[in-house]
Every structure is written in C-alpha cells, then in structure tokens.
Amino acid sequence: MRYVNVAINLPVKNLFKQFTYALTQEFNYIGAGWRVIVPFARQTTEGFVVGEAGKDLPQPENYKEVQAVIGTEPWFDEEMLEAARWLAGYYMCPLAEAMRLFIPGKSSIKRHAVYGDDGKLLYYELENRLKEKTQSCYAITESGRQALAEGNKRAKAQMAALQFLAEAGRELTSKELEEEGFSAAVLRALVQKGWCSRSEQRVLRNSYASAAALKQSFSLTDEQQNAVNAVAKAINEGRQETFLLQGVTGSGKTEVYLNLTAAALAKDRQVLVLVPEIALTAQIVKRYQSWFKGSIAVVHSKLSASERADVFYKIRTGEAQILIGVRSAVFAPFANLGLVIIDEEHDQSYKQEERPCYHAREVALHRAAYFGVPVILGSATPSIESYYDAIMKRFTHLRLTGRPNGQPLPEVQIVDMRKELQEKNFSVLSRTLQQELVRTAAAGEQAIVLLNRRGYSTFVMCRDCGETITCPHCAVALVYHEAGKAMRCHYCGNTMPIPTECPKCGSKRIKFFGTGTQKAEAQIAALPEVRVLRMDQDSTLRKFAHEEILSAFASGKYNVLIGTQMVAKGHDIPNVTLVGVLSADSALNMPDFRASERAFSLLTQAAGRAGRGDKPGHVILQVYDADNRTVQLAAKQDYDTFAQEELERRRELNYPPYAAFLKITVWDKDEARANDTAQGLTDFLRQKAEGMDADVFGPFAGIIGKVRDLYRVNVLVKSVQIERR
Ligand code: ADP
Ligand code: ZN
Ligand code: ZN
After folding, report:
1. Pocket of ligand 1 (CB under 6 A)
2. SS3 category, 477
3. Which of 258, 306, 317, 462 sits CB 3.0–4.6 Å from 502 for a disulfide?
C-alpha cells in the first residue's frame, strides 16, 4: 500500500498541516498534483495530493483511504506545485490556500446533503461543479456517401443534409447544421440509418469570440525595434531576464508586446499577458485578435468558474497559445510558457490584499524563473520598486521616449481651486474647465473628466493654504476618525486631536473633503453642447458594462465621459482632446507611503488619454495645493525626476525598496482581546527583533477598525533583512 500526503481544500484559515491517506490498488496510478476526494473530520472533501508519505509510518492501518480521484490527469505539475510551495512560504499561508489559487473556482465539487426518511442526514453526495458543456457533432460516413451517390427522391431533406456534410469535408456541429435549416429530426434519421456519425464534443465557452478584429500594421520606430530585439534575444536563447519597458503614454508599448508575442509563438511557446482591469482588457484583446486570431484565451474578473476552467483547459492543452488576463491569470496551468508581459506593471490591482495575499508581478517573476523565460514589465510610470531594480541593473531598462506619430505629449495646465473659491466660484468645476468643456464639445471633439474620489472625507486639509495634516514621524496624512473626533496615523499609531487652525498658515478653515460623481455629472450636464456619460462602480456592475460604456463614448454619441480612476486607464480614443481632473491632489493625501507614487501615476495616465489622435491634447488639473511637487512633476510628465526624488525620500525614511514591510493583522470579535493578542505579539516581536535590523510598530487599529463584526488590529514589522522573492 502507498501513502500520500494531502492538503485539505477547506477554507479553514489555520489548516497548515497536511494529512496522510492510504492509496488503494484502484488509485495506485496517482501521485503528487492529483485532486482527490478524502474523508476529513466526519465529512468528505476535496484535497490535493502534494507528495508521498515517508516509508516507515507508525500504525499504517490507521490511515483513511482516498475515496475518489477528480479528473483524468493531475491538475498540478511539478512547476505549479513548486510555485504553490513558494507562495505558501513567502506569503505565509497554508499550502492548500496557495494551491487553491491555481484551480478555477475555489473548489471543484459541491456537496448535497442526502436525508433519510426519518429526516436524518445520511451522507453527502458530491457533484462535479465544473460541468463540461458539450454539443453534438455530425460527420458523413462511408455508407452515407454511398446513399448520397445512389440518391433517394423521397428523402429530400436527408439527402440535402448529406450533401452539405459531404461538401463541408469536416464534422459539423448541430448548431451549424440547424442554421442551414436541417432539423434535429433529419439528423436523427441520418444517424439511425448509419449514414452519419454523431459525437459529443466539449464546447469551450469563449465570451470574447465575437470581438471584432482591428488590423493595423506599421514599421517600428528605432526605440521599439531596439526593445523588440533585446527581448527577442532572450526568448530565442530561452533565458530568464526581466525588462522594464518604460514608455510614455501612447509610445507604442502594445506594439512591442505584439511583436514579441509573435516571436515567442514562432518558437512554439505560450505567452502570458497580464493587464490590470477589465476596462483595459477589451482594447488589448482586440489588438491581439487582429494579429493572432483564434489562439487567444481571456481571463477577466467576472468569469464564472466554468468559464475559467475552459480557459485553463485551453492553456493546459496548448489549444490557446496566448492568455490575456487580470492578476488571477498568473496561476494558469501553462504547458510551455515562453514569455510574460505585464502591462501597466505599477498598477495596484496586481496586488491581492486579502488572504491569500500575493502580488501577481512577484508570482510571474517566480514562475518565469522556473521556466527560464523573459518577463517584460511595461509602464509609463513604473513602480518605484521596479525602477529601482532597473537602476540597480537587476532589470534591463528599455525606454520609449516619444510617440510614434510624432504627436507631442499633451499640454498640462494646473488650476488652483483656492483662487476659484476666493473669486466666488463654488462649483466643483473651475471656470477654465467649464470653458474648455464647452469649446471641446462645440468643436466636435471629446473630453474625459476624472473625479479622484479615493481618500475623500478621510483626511483633513486647510482650505486656504492646501496644507494636509500629516504625522510628524511618518510623512503620511493622518486619517480622520469620526468616532474619536481625532486623527490617527496608520503607520505608527500616533493619534492627534484635530487642530482648530492650520499649523502652516493659521487659517481656521479646516475641512474634511467630500463630493460625488453624481454632483459633478449634474454640473457638467448643465453646460451647453455637452452630452455626458458616467462610468464608475455603480454604472459598471454588469459583465460588459465597461466595454459598452467605452464603445458608446468612442462612437461619439456622448462627448464627455466622467468617472473615477477607471476612465483614466488604457483606452485609446483618438477624438479625446481634453482631460480634466477634479481634485487632482486628493490621492496625495492617502495614509500610505505610496500615495505620491500613485497620484503621480494616475495623473500621468489620465493626461495620457488626451491627444492620442492627430489633434493635440490639453489637460487641466484642478488642485488645492498648486505648489505640490508631485503635481508639478506630473504636469511636466517628468517621471524620472519624480522617481529619483521619491527614491531619495524612501531611502531617508527607510521605506521600500530599501526595506520591506510585514503587516500582521489580528482579527477578533472581541475588541479587548484583539488588542491584547496584538500587544502580546508586538512585545514578542520586539524582543526577537532586538539586535536585528528590524523595527516593530504597533499595535494600532486597521484603517477600517472593524469589518464584518471583527475588530482588526495591526502590527507592522519593518526590516532591511527581509528577502525579496
Ligand atoms: P502604449 O501601449 O504605449 O500606450 P500603443 O501601443 O497603444 O501605446 O500605441 C499608441 C498608438 O500609436 C496606437 O494607436 C498605435 O497603433 C500607434 N503606433 C504604435 N506604434 C507605431 C508605429 N511604429 N508607427 C505608427 N503608429 C504606431
Ligand atoms: Zn493653511
Ligand atoms: Zn506616524
């Protein structure tokens, strides 16, 4: 008898152990990587076989047996198992939790309780949830050909169907045949007479099947060609190398990706393309489809488990060579990976902040290293970490400095909203922006208005000088807490009363900020000539809402698109000549050491939407603090200066990439107990950290101190001694 170790696939947060099960003769063919059904704690559940148990087990007769095997092959190959182990170790989660990321849907089985006549629970019936959708396919047989040759006047419809099948020269689906007017009854008759064969084949659900192609072709610029050559060399040599492709918005990064994808396919390898959000996926998918037709699979965050299973199946079997997807696509079962592309690599959506926590960029780099294949990180505003790696020559730095059509970057104008107030304009729109919106609409051009809502109402700012109240120890904005009528720092836990006057200018006009998309929409809609369309969380709940909104806007039916962050990203609408950003500096006030980095990137992305066609673009940034360094550098679109200054600041404060943070969160229903546990942990860690290059901060309440009746208390460890990757 063999014994295997199994990671139990149950969402139990602290199931760090694996359990040993016996393999009966019937299942002796399986090994590590298989998914199985095992008895566990008086129920039946799914488990992942992670390896053989040791030879000399104490009392082997005591082990329970594997009850069933899921699927016809192991789900995890050696590479996936290794990646899951690394992930569990690096991000400190149970192995099963890490492995679950690699399967489509949280579990592949559903349990139905079966009750006896007496109403008592008898057992659970297990159902495979990943239903494979099949369809009937028909092909003409040899005797069918004979019958056709002989002809039959009475069975006209049957003869016509045979003729059609013979001419097609391949299997046809029932759908194809029905569309030609051949009924199910006719097909049944053909099968009965043996003139036609029928088989059930798996239908792969492909939600993007109908996306229209959009072929373009240019000759590459010198910079693009250099980038392509450098990466293609690594692809051809089968070598892991990470490239940072830093290119201003509209510089033709996507064109580089397409060429390199072609290079990888030419070597018969698969390509993973990660993109931040669905809103962006449609655009890039269309461009990929115009180049590569059918070999593309897509993962977006609104796929059902079954759709995801189909996508993964296509990747595993090699039926699809290209996978384009959001962060979870990084876990696809690649058979033969050859290249990884991470577009907008700085984007926050690559980071999963709930358990199991992971960063898709880190996972991609890890998997690429195993496969020995290159990774391209593309961005106009790289993450400070990646930029640092490029400077330190760990990544190869490639640059695209201009737009291929010679179009200059848009002209950016900063509007000081304090002046607007002083001059009695109480609208959320500055007079300049109002005028420009009307002018743009009248000229038959289009505008995008970004309302930067993140961080609203939570920070405290002076209305006269724009000063934000920050923590004296951490250089991050303090967060206003209504309950305590106080401000608190979420890095060191420091609490301060709300000042009655501004520490900088002495003004008494201290404000908590807030305004909504709808209010702004109403004010814009009131302008002459303007037809406004809104895109935010509320308006994009449905599956293809993003795409529909963007295509309605692109069609010209509307001339102003207003929305949150999502309007700033990725799309390429040539008729957009104006971009306005309301409260452009509000993202700076988030209680996060990455606030400046995020604000800079958002402003640059937003500005990059303007002037992508042949008309020049114009950008208006409305701010409360016109002197802010980040806003000014963003207006100049001077990423390099920004990044160098930001790195200097991070070095002084010992922030990433110069140190690493480890956040430990204690969750408890009981507030006092949460605090006690966190305090105990803090004391313990402080003691351990003594003599090491590590600082322990806390305990302090999470930004949202209580979620679903659980209190959250954080402890933060900062150290230069944490290994990366
Ligand atoms: P990015 O991904 O850097 O934002 P894109 O690849 O979307 O840039 O390119 C911006 C625009 O320039 C697109 O419309 C694209 O078709 C066009 N483009 C890209 N490369 C070239 C080129 N070499 N010659 C002419 N036009 C190009
Ligand atoms: Zn002030
Ligand atoms: Zn602080």
Report:
1. 216, 218, 220-221, 224, 247, 249-255, 404-405, 572
2. strand
3. 462
